[in-house]
């Protein structure tokens, strides 16, 4: 009987657990002197860490929802994200190349 339970648990797809640890770590690092001095050097002002707070609160809010609901929300967010590369046709790529680097061919 235990073999049947093991088989059914193995055949089920493993669910990815939502962990807020990374958001908490990012928030704690945001308040560290290293990060704050780095931001002051680069941007001329200290970081308010509001983006890190909103990420942590969002994660904790998702933890209160049902697993199926969380999966739907996360999938919708993934689909909404834009791709990091902009895809071009060969003609678009050639015209962009000429625009950016065409002056190098002239001598």
Automatic annotation (TrEMBL):
InterPro entries: Pants/Emi1-like (IPR021475)
Superkingdom of origin: Eukaryota
Pfam families recorded: PANTS-like
Protein name, UniProt field: Chaperone DnaJ-domain superfamily protein
